[in-house]
Design brief:
108 residues; 29% strand; four-stranded mixed sheet; Transcription Regulator spoIIAA; 4 strands; alpha/beta; 3 helices
Length: 108
């Protein structure tokens, strides 16, 4: 029998305030934490005219994690606000591309 490699441990996701409308998102963005992060992000930068979110420390992303980022963008646009994503991981960009959602994650 061939053993499969162990799955990497999930990295707890978090949102950190860097000041002046800048935020850092880290960890794995997945189904089990997307709703919590949606609420945290909405409360944290929901009133800011512009929020810049650094994704450099983001690990694994599934469709719920992608939906989280799209929802932040759509909510901002509907309220004449801007969300800018920086340092997007290649896998996240690829997932957005094949899902035809890349336009929601474009940096301004």
């Amino acid at each position: 029998m061939t053993s499969r490699p162990a799955e990497p441990m999930q990295q707890d996701a978090g949102l950190a305030n860097l000041g002046q409308g800048r935020w850092a998102l880290s960890g794995d963005l997945q189904f089990d934490n997307a709703a919590r992060l949606l609420d945290e992000g909405t409360a944290a930068f929901g009133a800011d005219a512009r929020a810049e979110i650094d994704l450099a420390q983001v690990g694994r992303v599934d469709s719920a994690g992608l939906a989280l980022l799209v929802e932040w963008s759509v909510a901002a646009r509907s309220s004449d606000r801007v969300v800018v994503y920086r340092n997007m991981p290649a896998r996240l960009g690829a997932l957005a591309g094949i899902s035809d959602l890349a336009q929601f994650l474009e940096s301004n």
